[in-house]
Amino acid sequence: MGIFSIITTSLGFGVGTSIGVVIGYYMFIYFQPTDVKDPIIQPLVEVDSKALQQMLPEIPSWIKNPDYDRLDWLNKFIEYMWPYLDKAICKTARSIAKPIIAEQIPKYKIESVEFEELNLGCLPPTFQGMKVYTTDEKELIMEPLVKWAGNPNITVAVKAFGLRVTVQVIDLQVFAAPRITLKPLVPSFPCFANIYVSLMEKPHVDFGLELLGADVMSIPGLYRVVQDIIKDQVAKMYLWPKALEVQIMDPTKAMKSPVGILHVKVVRAEKLKKKDLLGASDPYVKLKLTEEKLPSKKTTVKYKNLNPEWNEEFNIVVKDPESQVLELIVYDWEQIGKHDKMGMNVIPLKEITPDEPKVTTLDLLKTLDPNDPENEKSRGQLIVEVLYKPFKEDELPHNAEDSNAIEKAPEGTPASGGLLVITVHEAEDVEGKHHTNPFARLLFKGEERRTKHVKKNRDPRWGESFQFMLEEPPSNERLYVEVQSVSSKLGLLHPKETLGYVDIKLSDVVTNKRINEKYHLIDSRNGRIQIELQWRTP
Fold first, then answer.
1. Which fold has domain 256-390?
2. What is the pTM of this model?
3. Which of 66, 200, 202, 413 is the most exposed place for a label (fewest CB within 10 A)?
4. pLDDT digits (tens, 9 = 90+) for 248-278
């Protein structure tokens, strides 16, 4: 009976299961559920941005945000160069880590820590896009989005208490949004002095850690703890506004900051040659330092005089006494036409002993070419007195890498006054009706200064500075700056044209010490001009 019941039960189970599978199959094939609807198919352009981001979480930032630019060219470059970059980066990492490890291991009674293997794998990082900021300062700001899902092989051997343990980092993933600032921008290759790297948000770092052949990160709860520790430690060091600073070159040398003042006294000239038809000359002297963009300084004109006496003094800022040269040129003033050159000569600053006045008599030459036979002719002599005074240590600009740093006024500045420095950087969207050859004209306290002309350019760049030594702060003064265009062709029709002007109150620069702004030009449709003002006190 027992055997019969077992056989019956087994047969019943087998038959019932077979019948159930067949019925279920036919029901699945021939019966459709009524609550299931066909999917809606529509173009991606008709989908809202939130739904699109949910559908495509890895969509590049340059598609989602128009402020970001594509970097396909950079990704291609890195992909091609990655085998070489891998070796270079690993070599640099070893050299940086070696002294740090040697300094830290004695604290933890560890005998040695060495890299058994160090390579970054065959998968390079990719840049999802980059945003570039433009400012009025001498800097370049970039914000790339970096993603790296790599397969590095990093194996570290730790030896302590007679035991040797190897730790291997595998399956590394890093997602970061750094801000890279290159500043200050300088006229020497690679054209920037420092690199500053900050993180705009906490980075995502994911990796596996194998210890004794087992993945330590698989321990429950350890993964989240390690993630939080890494994010917090990196944020403490590099989360904006904190930054990692890497110096590329000495900014003081790159920017050639002032190192002293050259005092020049033009005393007199003797035995000058006649240039005018009536048997006389109207001489004056122009002087400047080489390697400077500032306009030349000029003496007054001595009319009808071949042995003029000036006794006029000038102060010139020195940036490189080893290479700069004082250039002096004597001209004959003409009321109409070009002024005639009467002679010239130079004084190398390296031949001047600091803090010792020197009176020099210079023979006037036609050119500076020592082989020019015209130089053998007598053109007269020029007597000048020069004194080079280097800045003392406390007068040197120590923060040359900071574009906002304000230098002190040079020695000899009135105690109650200061030095007003006006730098005309550039203009934008200036356009004349008949010609566009712009230059900037400055009027301050009755004095006029001008920048150089830039031919056929709506966005001229001058970068010229002008200095005014004042007895008192210009709190109630105004600066008038006008952009003009002069015709490049000879003619009486439209020789000069005004492209716009701006009238600036100087009370703010006295209070703030430095202002660097772009001003909208009055009487110009879209024109703007960038002017930097500095008030330097003793």
1. Immunoglobulin-like (2.60.40)
2. 0.53
3. 66
4. 777 666 666 677 888 888 888 888 888 766 6
